[in-house]
Here is the input.
Amino acid sequence: MWRFLGETMAVFAKDMRCEFRTRVAFNSLALFAVTTLAAVSYTIGPYGIAEADRPYLLGALLWIVVFFAAMAGLDRSFVKEEETHTAPLLRLAARPLVVWGGKLLFNTVTLALLMAILVPLYVVLMGLSVRTPGWFILVLAAGCLALAVTTTIVAAIVARAMSRGALFAVLSVPLLLPLLVFLIQGTRAAIEGRVPDVLAALRAVVSLGGVMTVASAFLFPVVWHD
Amino acid sequence: MRGIAGQARPGSILVLTGPNGSGKSTLLQILAGLIRPTRGEVRYLDGDGEVPREEWRHRIGMAAPALALYEELTAMENLEFCARVRGLEVDGDRLRNGLVAVGLDPDRPTVVGGFSTGMQQRLKLAQAVLHDPDVLLLDEPGANLDPDGQDWLAEFVRGMAEEGRTVVVATNDRDEMTWGTDRVALPG
Amino acid sequence: MTRRDILLGALFLWMAAVIWAAFLWAPAAAGFLGQSSRIVFFHVPTAWVATLSFLVSFIASVQYLRTRDPRWDVRAHASASLGIVFTILATVTGSIFARIMWGSYWNWDPRETSITFLLLIYAAYFALRGAVPDPERKAALAAVYAILAFVTVPFLVFVVPRIYWSLHPDTIINTKGRITMDSRMFRVFMASLAGFTGLAAWLYDLECRIEALRRKAEEEIL
Here is the structure.
Protein backbone atom coordinates (compact mmCIF):
# COMPACT_ATOMS: atom_id res chain seq x y z
CA MET A 1 0.00 0.00 0.00
CA TRP A 2 2.69 2.46 1.01
CA ARG A 3 4.88 1.33 -1.84
CA PHE A 4 2.02 2.00 -4.21
CA LEU A 5 1.66 5.51 -2.82
CA GLY A 6 5.38 6.08 -3.00
CA GLU A 7 5.53 5.00 -6.61
CA THR A 8 2.49 7.09 -7.49
CA MET A 9 4.04 10.13 -5.83
CA ALA A 10 7.21 9.48 -7.84
CA VAL A 11 5.23 9.74 -11.08
CA PHE A 12 3.39 12.81 -9.82
CA ALA A 13 6.59 14.49 -8.65
CA LYS A 14 8.32 13.74 -11.92
CA ASP A 15 5.44 15.24 -13.91
CA MET A 16 5.35 18.31 -11.68
CA ARG A 17 9.08 18.78 -11.96
CA CYS A 18 9.09 18.45 -15.75
CA GLU A 19 6.07 20.71 -16.05
CA PHE A 20 7.56 23.29 -13.73
CA ARG A 21 10.66 23.51 -15.86
CA THR A 22 8.76 24.02 -19.11
CA ARG A 23 5.31 25.13 -17.97
CA VAL A 24 3.75 24.13 -21.28
CA ALA A 25 0.54 22.58 -20.00
CA PHE A 26 -0.11 25.17 -17.39
CA ASN A 27 0.55 27.97 -19.86
CA SER A 28 -1.92 26.49 -22.35
CA LEU A 29 -4.59 26.22 -19.71
CA ALA A 30 -3.91 29.64 -18.28
CA LEU A 31 -3.79 31.29 -21.69
CA PHE A 32 -7.13 29.85 -22.71
CA ALA A 33 -8.73 30.70 -19.42
CA VAL A 34 -7.44 34.26 -19.30
CA THR A 35 -8.28 34.95 -22.94
CA THR A 36 -11.83 33.65 -22.56
CA LEU A 37 -12.24 35.46 -19.29
CA ALA A 38 -11.00 38.72 -20.81
CA ALA A 39 -13.40 38.35 -23.74
CA VAL A 40 -16.36 37.58 -21.50
CA SER A 41 -15.50 40.31 -19.04
CA TYR A 42 -15.02 42.88 -21.74
CA THR A 43 -18.22 42.16 -23.59
CA ILE A 44 -20.49 41.35 -20.66
CA GLY A 45 -18.78 42.64 -17.55
CA PRO A 46 -20.53 43.13 -14.24
CA TYR A 47 -23.52 44.90 -15.75
CA GLY A 48 -24.18 43.18 -19.02
CA ILE A 49 -26.65 40.62 -17.74
CA ALA A 50 -30.00 41.24 -16.10
CA GLU A 51 -30.01 40.60 -12.36
CA ALA A 52 -32.44 37.70 -12.57
CA ASP A 53 -30.40 35.87 -15.19
CA ARG A 54 -27.04 36.37 -13.52
CA PRO A 55 -26.83 33.23 -11.40
CA TYR A 56 -27.67 30.92 -14.27
CA LEU A 57 -25.62 32.59 -16.98
CA LEU A 58 -22.60 33.38 -14.84
CA GLY A 59 -22.53 29.83 -13.51
CA ALA A 60 -22.72 28.42 -17.02
CA LEU A 61 -20.06 30.78 -18.35
CA LEU A 62 -17.67 29.92 -15.57
CA TRP A 63 -17.79 26.21 -16.32
CA ILE A 64 -17.51 26.86 -20.04
CA VAL A 65 -14.28 28.75 -19.44
CA VAL A 66 -12.97 25.95 -17.20
CA PHE A 67 -14.00 23.35 -19.76
CA PHE A 68 -12.19 25.06 -22.62
CA ALA A 69 -9.10 25.51 -20.50
CA ALA A 70 -9.19 21.82 -19.61
CA MET A 71 -9.45 20.88 -23.27
CA ALA A 72 -6.44 23.06 -24.02
CA GLY A 73 -4.04 21.44 -21.64
CA LEU A 74 -5.10 18.35 -19.73
CA ASP A 75 -4.21 15.84 -22.42
CA ARG A 76 -0.60 16.85 -22.26
CA SER A 77 0.38 14.55 -19.41
CA PHE A 78 -0.08 11.48 -21.60
CA VAL A 79 0.42 12.86 -25.09
CA LYS A 80 3.82 14.28 -24.16
CA GLU A 81 5.05 10.89 -22.92
CA GLU A 82 4.18 9.30 -26.24
CA GLU A 83 5.57 12.14 -28.35
CA THR A 84 8.91 12.29 -26.55
CA HIS A 85 9.15 8.47 -26.45
CA THR A 86 9.42 8.36 -22.69
CA ALA A 87 6.24 6.26 -22.46
CA PRO A 88 8.03 2.91 -23.06
CA LEU A 89 10.29 3.63 -20.10
CA LEU A 90 7.24 4.27 -17.95
CA ARG A 91 5.54 1.14 -19.25
CA LEU A 92 8.57 -0.92 -18.44
CA ALA A 93 9.28 0.40 -14.98
CA ALA A 94 5.94 1.37 -13.47
CA ARG A 95 2.75 -0.41 -12.55
CA PRO A 96 -0.22 0.75 -14.67
CA LEU A 97 -2.30 1.97 -11.75
CA VAL A 98 0.66 3.90 -10.43
CA VAL A 99 0.89 5.72 -13.75
CA TRP A 100 -2.84 6.39 -13.66
CA GLY A 101 -2.72 7.63 -10.08
CA GLY A 102 0.26 9.88 -10.66
CA LYS A 103 -1.17 11.45 -13.81
CA LEU A 104 -4.58 11.85 -12.20
CA LEU A 105 -2.98 13.68 -9.33
CA PHE A 106 -1.08 15.85 -11.75
CA ASN A 107 -4.19 16.77 -13.73
CA THR A 108 -6.12 17.48 -10.54
CA VAL A 109 -3.42 19.75 -9.15
CA THR A 110 -3.00 21.57 -12.46
CA LEU A 111 -6.74 22.16 -12.80
CA ALA A 112 -7.06 23.15 -9.14
CA LEU A 113 -4.23 25.64 -9.52
CA LEU A 114 -5.89 27.08 -12.57
CA MET A 115 -9.26 27.37 -10.88
CA ALA A 116 -7.69 28.95 -7.81
CA ILE A 117 -6.48 31.76 -10.03
CA LEU A 118 -9.41 31.88 -12.41
CA VAL A 119 -12.38 31.84 -10.06
CA PRO A 120 -11.44 34.84 -7.90
CA LEU A 121 -10.66 36.76 -11.09
CA TYR A 122 -14.01 35.76 -12.50
CA VAL A 123 -15.89 36.71 -9.37
CA VAL A 124 -14.28 40.12 -9.34
CA LEU A 125 -14.46 40.88 -13.05
CA MET A 126 -18.03 39.71 -13.47
CA GLY A 127 -19.30 41.21 -10.25
CA LEU A 128 -20.54 37.86 -9.04
CA SER A 129 -22.01 37.74 -5.57
CA VAL A 130 -22.42 34.30 -4.07
CA ARG A 131 -24.97 33.71 -1.30
CA THR A 132 -23.40 30.53 0.05
CA PRO A 133 -19.66 30.71 -0.67
CA GLY A 134 -18.89 27.52 1.23
CA TRP A 135 -21.14 25.44 -0.98
CA PHE A 136 -19.87 27.30 -4.01
CA ILE A 137 -16.32 26.25 -3.26
CA LEU A 138 -17.45 22.70 -2.60
CA VAL A 139 -19.12 22.49 -6.00
CA LEU A 140 -15.96 23.86 -7.61
CA ALA A 141 -13.80 21.32 -5.81
CA ALA A 142 -16.06 18.39 -6.73
CA GLY A 143 -16.14 19.61 -10.31
CA CYS A 144 -12.36 19.88 -10.43
CA LEU A 145 -11.93 16.30 -9.25
CA ALA A 146 -14.58 14.87 -11.56
CA LEU A 147 -13.23 16.76 -14.57
CA ALA A 148 -9.70 15.58 -13.80
CA VAL A 149 -10.75 11.93 -13.55
CA THR A 150 -12.58 11.97 -16.86
CA THR A 151 -9.95 13.91 -18.78
CA THR A 152 -7.20 11.65 -17.48
CA ILE A 153 -8.64 8.47 -18.93
CA VAL A 154 -9.60 10.19 -22.18
CA ALA A 155 -6.09 11.64 -22.46
CA ALA A 156 -4.69 8.13 -22.02
CA ILE A 157 -6.89 6.91 -24.88
CA VAL A 158 -6.06 9.83 -27.13
CA ALA A 159 -2.32 9.40 -26.56
CA ARG A 160 -2.55 5.96 -28.17
CA ALA A 161 -4.35 7.29 -31.26
CA MET A 162 -3.40 9.55 -34.11
CA SER A 163 -4.71 13.03 -34.96
CA ARG A 164 -4.69 13.89 -31.30
CA GLY A 165 -5.57 17.55 -31.18
CA ALA A 166 -9.26 17.54 -31.94
CA LEU A 167 -9.81 13.97 -30.79
CA PHE A 168 -9.33 14.85 -27.13
CA ALA A 169 -12.18 17.35 -27.23
CA VAL A 170 -14.39 15.09 -29.37
CA LEU A 171 -14.04 12.18 -26.95
CA SER A 172 -14.29 14.30 -23.81
CA VAL A 173 -17.46 16.20 -24.70
CA PRO A 174 -19.95 13.30 -24.44
CA LEU A 175 -18.44 12.14 -21.18
CA LEU A 176 -18.24 15.62 -19.69
CA LEU A 177 -21.57 17.12 -20.73
CA PRO A 178 -23.70 15.43 -18.05
CA LEU A 179 -21.12 16.45 -15.49
CA LEU A 180 -21.11 20.03 -16.70
CA VAL A 181 -24.89 20.19 -16.58
CA PHE A 182 -24.93 19.10 -12.95
CA LEU A 183 -22.09 21.46 -12.09
CA ILE A 184 -23.81 24.43 -13.68
CA GLN A 185 -27.00 23.64 -11.80
CA GLY A 186 -25.11 23.24 -8.55
CA THR A 187 -23.19 26.47 -9.07
CA ARG A 188 -26.38 28.35 -9.84
CA ALA A 189 -27.97 26.99 -6.69
CA ALA A 190 -24.92 27.97 -4.64
CA ILE A 191 -24.99 31.48 -6.05
CA GLU A 192 -28.67 31.77 -5.23
CA GLY A 193 -28.21 30.13 -1.85
CA ARG A 194 -30.58 27.21 -2.46
CA VAL A 195 -28.77 24.58 -0.41
CA PRO A 196 -31.06 21.57 -1.11
CA ASP A 197 -30.51 22.03 -4.85
CA VAL A 198 -26.78 22.34 -4.28
CA LEU A 199 -26.88 19.05 -2.43
CA ALA A 200 -28.82 17.36 -5.21
CA ALA A 201 -26.31 18.53 -7.79
CA LEU A 202 -23.38 17.58 -5.58
CA ARG A 203 -24.81 14.11 -5.15
CA ALA A 204 -25.02 13.75 -8.91
CA VAL A 205 -21.47 15.06 -9.43
CA VAL A 206 -19.99 12.86 -6.75
CA SER A 207 -21.71 9.71 -7.99
CA LEU A 208 -20.82 10.45 -11.61
CA GLY A 209 -17.24 11.17 -10.58
CA GLY A 210 -17.14 8.04 -8.47
CA VAL A 211 -18.40 5.87 -11.29
CA MET A 212 -15.85 7.39 -13.65
CA THR A 213 -13.06 6.78 -11.16
CA VAL A 214 -13.91 3.13 -10.70
CA ALA A 215 -14.37 2.57 -14.43
CA SER A 216 -11.07 4.37 -15.16
CA ALA A 217 -9.18 2.29 -12.62
CA PHE A 218 -10.40 -0.88 -14.29
CA LEU A 219 -9.96 0.26 -17.87
CA PHE A 220 -6.70 2.19 -17.66
CA PRO A 221 -4.42 -0.90 -17.71
CA VAL A 222 -6.08 -1.94 -20.98
CA VAL A 223 -5.46 1.44 -22.58
CA TRP A 224 -1.94 1.72 -21.21
CA HIS A 225 -0.71 -1.66 -22.23
CA ASP A 226 -2.25 -1.97 -25.63
CA MET B 1 6.84 -11.56 -38.28
CA ARG B 2 5.83 -15.15 -38.17
CA GLY B 3 7.27 -18.29 -36.76
CA ILE B 4 9.76 -16.85 -34.31
CA ALA B 5 10.72 -19.18 -31.51
CA GLY B 6 13.73 -19.45 -29.27
CA GLN B 7 15.17 -19.24 -25.82
CA ALA B 8 18.10 -17.67 -24.00
CA ARG B 9 19.98 -18.78 -20.91
CA PRO B 10 21.59 -16.86 -18.06
CA GLY B 11 25.18 -15.91 -18.64
CA SER B 12 24.75 -15.95 -22.40
CA ILE B 13 24.58 -13.17 -24.94
CA LEU B 14 22.02 -13.73 -27.66
CA VAL B 15 22.49 -11.56 -30.72
CA LEU B 16 19.61 -10.77 -33.05
CA THR B 17 20.61 -9.67 -36.50
CA GLY B 18 18.73 -8.97 -39.66
CA PRO B 19 18.23 -6.31 -42.28
CA ASN B 20 16.47 -3.04 -41.46
CA GLY B 21 12.78 -3.59 -41.01
CA SER B 22 13.12 -7.27 -40.19
CA GLY B 23 11.61 -6.70 -36.79
CA LYS B 24 14.57 -6.82 -34.40
CA SER B 25 13.39 -3.84 -32.40
CA THR B 26 9.81 -5.09 -32.41
CA LEU B 27 10.90 -8.48 -31.15
CA LEU B 28 12.89 -6.88 -28.37
CA GLN B 29 9.89 -4.80 -27.37
CA ILE B 30 7.74 -7.92 -27.33
CA LEU B 31 10.29 -9.56 -25.06
CA ALA B 32 10.10 -6.55 -22.77
CA GLY B 33 6.35 -6.76 -22.67
CA LEU B 34 5.90 -3.40 -24.35
CA ILE B 35 4.14 -4.80 -27.39
CA ARG B 36 1.54 -7.52 -27.31
CA PRO B 37 2.19 -10.21 -29.93
CA THR B 38 -0.78 -11.10 -32.12
CA ARG B 39 -0.08 -14.72 -31.38
CA GLY B 40 2.34 -16.53 -29.15
CA GLU B 41 3.84 -15.78 -25.79
CA VAL B 42 6.95 -14.77 -23.93
CA ARG B 43 7.86 -16.50 -20.70
CA TYR B 44 10.56 -15.89 -18.18
CA LEU B 45 11.59 -18.74 -15.93
CA ASP B 46 13.77 -18.73 -12.89
CA GLY B 47 14.65 -21.22 -10.18
CA ASP B 48 11.15 -20.95 -8.70
CA GLY B 49 9.23 -21.36 -11.92
CA GLU B 50 7.60 -18.79 -14.13
CA VAL B 51 8.16 -15.12 -13.36
CA PRO B 52 4.76 -13.39 -13.14
CA ARG B 53 4.11 -10.42 -15.39
CA GLU B 54 4.04 -7.97 -12.47
CA GLU B 55 7.60 -8.95 -11.61
CA TRP B 56 8.99 -8.30 -15.06
CA ARG B 57 9.67 -4.65 -14.35
CA HIS B 58 12.07 -5.62 -11.60
CA ARG B 59 13.84 -8.31 -13.57
CA ILE B 60 14.19 -6.78 -17.01
CA GLY B 61 16.29 -3.81 -18.08
CA MET B 62 16.16 -2.28 -21.53
CA ALA B 63 18.06 0.28 -23.55
CA ALA B 64 16.72 1.14 -26.99
CA PRO B 65 16.24 4.03 -29.38
CA ALA B 66 12.50 3.67 -28.73
CA LEU B 67 13.02 4.26 -25.03
CA ALA B 68 13.93 7.85 -24.26
CA LEU B 69 14.66 9.54 -20.97
CA TYR B 70 13.20 12.74 -19.60
CA GLU B 71 14.90 15.69 -21.19
CA GLU B 72 13.79 18.17 -18.57
CA LEU B 73 15.49 16.23 -15.79
CA THR B 74 19.16 15.78 -14.98
CA ALA B 75 20.86 12.39 -15.19
CA MET B 76 20.61 11.90 -11.43
CA GLU B 77 16.96 12.89 -11.40
CA ASN B 78 16.20 10.44 -14.20
CA LEU B 79 17.86 7.58 -12.36
CA GLU B 80 16.22 8.59 -9.13
CA PHE B 81 12.85 8.47 -10.83
CA CYS B 82 13.57 5.05 -12.33
CA ALA B 83 14.43 3.73 -8.90
CA ARG B 84 11.49 5.31 -7.12
CA VAL B 85 8.87 4.26 -9.63
CA ARG B 86 10.03 0.66 -9.27
CA GLY B 87 9.53 0.95 -5.55
CA LEU B 88 13.23 0.73 -4.78
CA GLU B 89 15.03 2.49 -1.98
CA VAL B 90 16.75 5.54 -3.38
CA ASP B 91 20.38 5.17 -2.44
CA GLY B 92 22.28 8.27 -3.52
CA ASP B 93 25.60 6.44 -3.63
CA ARG B 94 24.22 3.65 -5.76
CA LEU B 95 22.86 6.15 -8.25
CA ARG B 96 26.15 8.00 -8.39
CA ASN B 97 28.07 4.79 -8.91
CA GLY B 98 25.68 3.83 -11.64
CA LEU B 99 26.44 7.03 -13.49
CA VAL B 100 30.17 6.78 -12.95
CA ALA B 101 30.13 3.19 -14.22
CA VAL B 102 28.86 4.38 -17.61
CA GLY B 103 31.26 7.26 -17.76
CA LEU B 104 28.94 10.11 -16.77
CA ASP B 105 29.51 12.84 -14.20
CA PRO B 106 26.89 12.57 -11.44
CA ASP B 107 27.33 16.16 -10.34
CA ARG B 108 26.62 17.68 -13.71
CA PRO B 109 23.63 19.96 -13.40
CA THR B 110 22.71 19.94 -17.11
CA VAL B 111 19.40 18.41 -18.01
CA VAL B 112 19.38 15.46 -20.38
CA GLY B 113 18.08 17.67 -23.17
CA GLY B 114 21.53 19.24 -23.23
CA PHE B 115 23.39 15.93 -23.50
CA SER B 116 25.07 14.70 -26.64
CA THR B 117 23.57 11.55 -28.16
CA GLY B 118 26.54 9.56 -26.87
CA MET B 119 25.93 10.74 -23.34
CA GLN B 120 22.24 10.02 -23.65
CA GLN B 121 23.07 6.51 -24.78
CA ARG B 122 25.29 6.01 -21.75
CA LEU B 123 22.52 7.23 -19.49
CA LYS B 124 20.11 4.79 -21.11
CA LEU B 125 22.51 1.99 -20.27
CA ALA B 126 22.83 3.23 -16.70
CA GLN B 127 19.04 3.23 -16.40
CA ALA B 128 18.86 -0.29 -17.84
CA VAL B 129 21.09 -1.82 -15.20
CA LEU B 130 20.17 0.35 -12.24
CA HIS B 131 17.78 -2.11 -10.63
CA ASP B 132 20.15 -5.04 -11.08
CA PRO B 133 17.99 -6.90 -13.59
CA ASP B 134 18.42 -10.54 -14.55
CA VAL B 135 17.67 -9.84 -18.19
CA LEU B 136 19.16 -7.09 -20.34
CA LEU B 137 17.58 -6.17 -23.64
CA LEU B 138 19.77 -3.93 -25.76
CA ASP B 139 18.69 -2.47 -29.07
CA GLU B 140 21.62 -1.06 -31.07
CA PRO B 141 23.51 -0.20 -27.89
CA GLY B 142 26.60 1.17 -29.59
CA ALA B 143 24.76 3.31 -32.08
CA ASN B 144 25.76 6.74 -30.81
CA LEU B 145 29.06 5.92 -29.14
CA ASP B 146 32.52 6.87 -30.34
CA PRO B 147 35.10 4.09 -30.92
CA ASP B 148 36.41 4.30 -27.34
CA GLY B 149 32.87 4.16 -26.13
CA GLN B 150 32.20 1.10 -28.22
CA ASP B 151 35.18 -0.69 -26.71
CA TRP B 152 33.96 0.20 -23.27
CA LEU B 153 30.50 -1.04 -24.22
CA ALA B 154 31.83 -4.44 -25.28
CA GLU B 155 33.53 -4.79 -21.87
CA PHE B 156 30.42 -3.59 -20.10
CA VAL B 157 28.09 -6.03 -21.84
CA ARG B 158 30.42 -8.99 -21.44
CA GLY B 159 30.73 -8.12 -17.77
CA MET B 160 26.95 -8.11 -17.43
CA ALA B 161 26.70 -11.56 -18.95
CA GLU B 162 29.55 -12.90 -16.86
CA GLU B 163 27.67 -11.86 -13.74
CA GLY B 164 24.97 -14.34 -14.72
CA ARG B 165 22.57 -12.13 -16.60
CA THR B 166 20.82 -13.04 -19.82
CA VAL B 167 21.63 -10.48 -22.49
CA VAL B 168 19.79 -10.08 -25.77
CA VAL B 169 21.33 -7.65 -28.25
CA ALA B 170 19.68 -6.51 -31.48
CA THR B 171 22.23 -5.06 -33.83
CA ASN B 172 23.57 -4.69 -37.32
CA ASP B 173 27.03 -3.69 -36.16
CA ARG B 174 29.68 -6.23 -37.18
CA ASP B 175 31.67 -5.88 -33.97
CA GLU B 176 28.67 -6.17 -31.76
CA MET B 177 27.64 -9.29 -33.57
CA THR B 178 30.79 -11.00 -32.34
CA TRP B 179 29.76 -10.65 -28.73
CA GLY B 180 27.20 -13.31 -28.92
CA THR B 181 27.44 -16.84 -27.76
CA ASP B 182 24.30 -17.48 -29.81
CA ARG B 183 23.05 -15.72 -32.85
CA VAL B 184 19.62 -15.49 -34.45
CA ALA B 185 19.20 -13.96 -37.88
CA LEU B 186 15.76 -12.60 -38.66
CA PRO B 187 14.69 -12.80 -42.28
CA GLY B 188 14.03 -9.50 -44.00
CA MET C 1 -37.26 -21.52 -48.55
CA THR C 2 -34.89 -21.52 -45.63
CA ARG C 3 -35.93 -20.78 -42.08
CA ARG C 4 -34.32 -17.41 -42.47
CA ASP C 5 -36.46 -16.55 -45.48
CA ILE C 6 -39.59 -17.52 -43.57
CA LEU C 7 -38.61 -15.33 -40.63
CA LEU C 8 -37.85 -12.40 -42.90
CA GLY C 9 -41.12 -12.85 -44.68
CA ALA C 10 -42.94 -12.89 -41.38
CA LEU C 11 -41.12 -9.74 -40.28
CA PHE C 12 -42.14 -8.02 -43.50
CA LEU C 13 -45.79 -8.94 -43.05
CA TRP C 14 -45.68 -7.96 -39.41
CA MET C 15 -44.26 -4.51 -40.12
CA ALA C 16 -46.72 -3.99 -42.96
CA ALA C 17 -49.54 -4.81 -40.58
CA VAL C 18 -48.10 -2.49 -37.95
CA ILE C 19 -47.92 0.41 -40.39
CA TRP C 20 -51.47 -0.20 -41.55
CA ALA C 21 -52.73 -0.47 -37.99
CA ALA C 22 -50.83 2.60 -36.89
CA PHE C 23 -52.62 4.76 -39.39
CA LEU C 24 -55.95 3.07 -39.87
CA TRP C 25 -56.86 0.89 -36.93
CA ALA C 26 -55.60 2.62 -33.80
CA PRO C 27 -57.38 5.78 -32.79
CA ALA C 28 -55.71 9.15 -32.55
CA ALA C 29 -55.02 9.89 -28.89
CA ALA C 30 -56.83 12.61 -27.05
CA GLY C 31 -54.88 15.66 -26.02
CA PHE C 32 -52.70 15.60 -29.14
CA LEU C 33 -52.93 17.80 -32.20
CA GLY C 34 -54.84 15.98 -34.93
CA GLN C 35 -53.25 12.71 -35.92
CA SER C 36 -49.85 13.58 -34.51
CA SER C 37 -50.05 11.01 -31.70
CA ARG C 38 -49.50 8.30 -34.27
CA ILE C 39 -45.85 9.18 -34.31
CA VAL C 40 -45.47 7.34 -31.02
CA PHE C 41 -45.67 4.07 -32.95
CA PHE C 42 -42.50 4.97 -34.81
CA HIS C 43 -40.63 7.43 -32.69
CA VAL C 44 -40.51 5.46 -29.46
CA PRO C 45 -39.42 2.17 -31.06
CA THR C 46 -36.54 3.90 -32.86
CA ALA C 47 -35.41 5.43 -29.59
CA TRP C 48 -35.76 2.02 -28.00
CA VAL C 49 -33.63 0.39 -30.70
CA ALA C 50 -31.04 3.16 -30.38
CA THR C 51 -30.73 2.46 -26.66
CA LEU C 52 -30.78 -1.29 -27.16
CA SER C 53 -27.96 -1.03 -29.71
CA PHE C 54 -25.97 0.92 -27.21
CA LEU C 55 -26.47 -1.82 -24.66
CA VAL C 56 -25.39 -4.46 -27.16
CA SER C 57 -22.35 -2.36 -28.02
CA PHE C 58 -21.46 -2.18 -24.36
CA ILE C 59 -21.81 -5.93 -23.83
CA ALA C 60 -19.81 -6.70 -26.96
CA SER C 61 -17.10 -4.28 -25.81
CA VAL C 62 -16.86 -5.96 -22.42
CA GLN C 63 -16.69 -9.35 -24.06
CA TYR C 64 -14.02 -8.19 -26.45
CA LEU C 65 -11.81 -7.04 -23.59
CA ARG C 66 -12.39 -10.29 -21.78
CA THR C 67 -11.76 -12.65 -24.70
CA ARG C 68 -9.91 -10.53 -27.28
CA ASP C 69 -11.91 -12.39 -29.90
CA PRO C 70 -12.22 -10.10 -32.96
CA ARG C 71 -15.77 -11.29 -33.53
CA TRP C 72 -16.87 -9.34 -30.48
CA ASP C 73 -15.35 -6.22 -31.98
CA VAL C 74 -17.33 -6.87 -35.17
CA ARG C 75 -20.48 -7.04 -33.06
CA ALA C 76 -19.63 -3.87 -31.17
CA HIS C 77 -19.00 -2.03 -34.41
CA ALA C 78 -22.16 -3.38 -36.03
CA SER C 79 -24.46 -2.46 -33.18
CA ALA C 80 -22.87 0.99 -32.93
CA SER C 81 -23.49 1.54 -36.66
CA LEU C 82 -27.08 0.52 -36.19
CA GLY C 83 -27.34 2.62 -33.07
CA ILE C 84 -26.23 5.82 -34.68
CA VAL C 85 -28.70 5.41 -37.53
CA PHE C 86 -31.61 4.77 -35.19
CA THR C 87 -30.54 7.61 -32.93
CA ILE C 88 -30.70 9.97 -35.88
CA LEU C 89 -34.12 8.55 -36.78
CA ALA C 90 -35.37 9.01 -33.24
CA THR C 91 -34.08 12.56 -33.14
CA VAL C 92 -35.69 13.44 -36.45
CA THR C 93 -39.08 11.84 -35.70
CA GLY C 94 -39.08 13.46 -32.27
CA SER C 95 -38.23 16.80 -33.75
CA ILE C 96 -41.06 16.57 -36.29
CA PHE C 97 -43.48 15.78 -33.50
CA ALA C 98 -42.15 18.66 -31.41
CA ARG C 99 -42.73 21.05 -34.29
CA ILE C 100 -46.32 19.91 -34.68
CA MET C 101 -47.16 19.87 -31.00
CA TRP C 102 -45.28 22.82 -29.61
CA GLY C 103 -44.22 24.78 -32.68
CA SER C 104 -40.47 24.43 -32.37
CA TYR C 105 -38.18 21.73 -33.64
CA TRP C 106 -35.98 21.55 -30.59
CA ASN C 107 -36.43 22.41 -26.94
CA TRP C 108 -33.69 20.65 -25.00
CA ASP C 109 -36.14 18.86 -22.76
CA PRO C 110 -34.39 16.07 -20.80
CA ARG C 111 -35.28 13.23 -23.16
CA GLU C 112 -34.30 15.25 -26.20
CA THR C 113 -31.08 16.07 -24.44
CA SER C 114 -30.44 12.42 -23.65
CA ILE C 115 -30.85 11.35 -27.25
CA THR C 116 -28.43 14.08 -28.30
CA PHE C 117 -25.87 12.77 -25.86
CA LEU C 118 -26.31 9.32 -27.33
CA LEU C 119 -25.66 10.78 -30.76
CA LEU C 120 -22.53 12.54 -29.52
CA ILE C 121 -21.29 9.33 -27.95
CA TYR C 122 -21.76 7.39 -31.15
CA ALA C 123 -20.05 10.09 -33.17
CA ALA C 124 -17.12 10.14 -30.75
CA TYR C 125 -16.94 6.33 -30.87
CA PHE C 126 -16.58 6.38 -34.64
CA ALA C 127 -14.13 9.29 -34.51
CA LEU C 128 -11.95 7.23 -32.19
CA ARG C 129 -12.16 4.15 -34.37
CA GLY C 130 -11.13 6.25 -37.33
CA ALA C 131 -8.11 7.64 -35.52
CA VAL C 132 -6.43 4.31 -34.71
CA PRO C 133 -4.90 2.42 -37.62
CA ASP C 134 -3.87 -0.77 -35.86
CA PRO C 135 -6.91 -3.11 -35.75
CA GLU C 136 -6.25 -4.64 -32.35
CA ARG C 137 -5.53 -1.36 -30.68
CA LYS C 138 -8.55 0.18 -32.42
CA ALA C 139 -10.79 -2.56 -31.08
CA ALA C 140 -9.43 -2.29 -27.55
CA LEU C 141 -9.58 1.50 -27.32
CA ALA C 142 -13.05 1.60 -28.87
CA ALA C 143 -14.21 -1.00 -26.38
CA VAL C 144 -12.84 1.06 -23.50
CA TYR C 145 -14.60 4.16 -24.74
CA ALA C 146 -17.90 2.35 -25.24
CA ILE C 147 -17.73 1.14 -21.65
CA LEU C 148 -16.90 4.60 -20.31
CA ALA C 149 -19.74 6.14 -22.28
CA PHE C 150 -22.13 3.47 -21.11
CA VAL C 151 -21.49 4.11 -17.44
CA THR C 152 -22.16 7.82 -17.99
CA VAL C 153 -25.39 7.57 -19.91
CA PRO C 154 -27.64 5.94 -17.30
CA PHE C 155 -27.09 9.07 -15.23
CA LEU C 156 -28.60 11.25 -17.83
CA VAL C 157 -31.29 8.99 -19.14
CA PHE C 158 -32.66 7.84 -15.83
CA VAL C 159 -31.71 10.54 -13.39
CA VAL C 160 -32.57 13.62 -15.34
CA PRO C 161 -36.09 12.85 -16.67
CA ARG C 162 -37.29 11.62 -13.31
CA ILE C 163 -36.19 14.65 -11.37
CA TYR C 164 -36.78 17.43 -13.79
CA TRP C 165 -39.83 18.61 -15.63
CA SER C 166 -40.16 17.20 -19.10
CA LEU C 167 -42.05 18.12 -22.24
CA HIS C 168 -42.36 14.46 -23.08
CA PRO C 169 -45.89 13.19 -22.74
CA ASP C 170 -46.32 10.54 -20.12
CA THR C 171 -48.51 8.41 -22.30
CA ILE C 172 -46.65 5.24 -21.73
CA ILE C 173 -45.48 4.99 -18.21
CA ASN C 174 -46.35 7.74 -15.82
CA THR C 175 -45.01 8.27 -12.33
CA LYS C 176 -47.51 5.88 -10.86
CA GLY C 177 -46.40 3.13 -13.19
CA ARG C 178 -49.76 2.55 -14.71
CA ILE C 179 -50.35 2.40 -18.41
CA THR C 180 -52.81 4.99 -19.55
CA MET C 181 -52.95 4.35 -23.26
CA ASP C 182 -56.06 3.36 -25.16
CA SER C 183 -56.10 -0.42 -25.55
CA ARG C 184 -55.92 -0.45 -29.35
CA MET C 185 -53.14 2.07 -29.31
CA PHE C 186 -51.33 0.00 -26.75
CA ARG C 187 -51.55 -3.13 -28.83
CA VAL C 188 -50.30 -1.44 -31.96
CA PHE C 189 -47.57 0.20 -29.96
CA MET C 190 -46.30 -3.08 -28.54
CA ALA C 191 -46.55 -4.69 -31.96
CA SER C 192 -44.50 -1.87 -33.42
CA LEU C 193 -41.94 -2.23 -30.67
CA ALA C 194 -41.63 -5.94 -31.42
CA GLY C 195 -41.44 -5.27 -35.15
CA PHE C 196 -38.73 -2.68 -34.82
CA THR C 197 -36.74 -4.98 -32.55
CA GLY C 198 -37.00 -7.70 -35.19
CA LEU C 199 -35.93 -5.24 -37.85
CA ALA C 200 -32.97 -4.20 -35.76
CA ALA C 201 -31.97 -7.81 -35.15
CA TRP C 202 -32.04 -8.51 -38.87
CA LEU C 203 -30.01 -5.39 -39.73
CA TYR C 204 -27.54 -6.19 -36.96
CA ASP C 205 -27.05 -9.69 -38.30
CA LEU C 206 -26.51 -8.37 -41.82
CA GLU C 207 -24.09 -5.74 -40.59
CA CYS C 208 -22.08 -8.31 -38.62
CA ARG C 209 -21.79 -10.58 -41.63
CA ILE C 210 -20.79 -7.79 -43.99
CA GLU C 211 -18.18 -6.50 -41.54
CA ALA C 212 -16.77 -9.98 -41.00
CA LEU C 213 -16.49 -10.55 -44.74
CA ARG C 214 -14.88 -7.16 -45.24
CA ARG C 215 -12.23 -7.88 -42.61
CA LYS C 216 -11.55 -11.26 -44.10
CA ALA C 217 -11.08 -9.67 -47.52
CA GLU C 218 -8.70 -7.09 -46.06
CA GLU C 219 -6.66 -9.77 -44.39
CA GLU C 220 -6.35 -11.68 -47.62
CA ILE C 221 -5.14 -8.60 -49.44
CA LEU C 222 -2.49 -8.13 -46.75
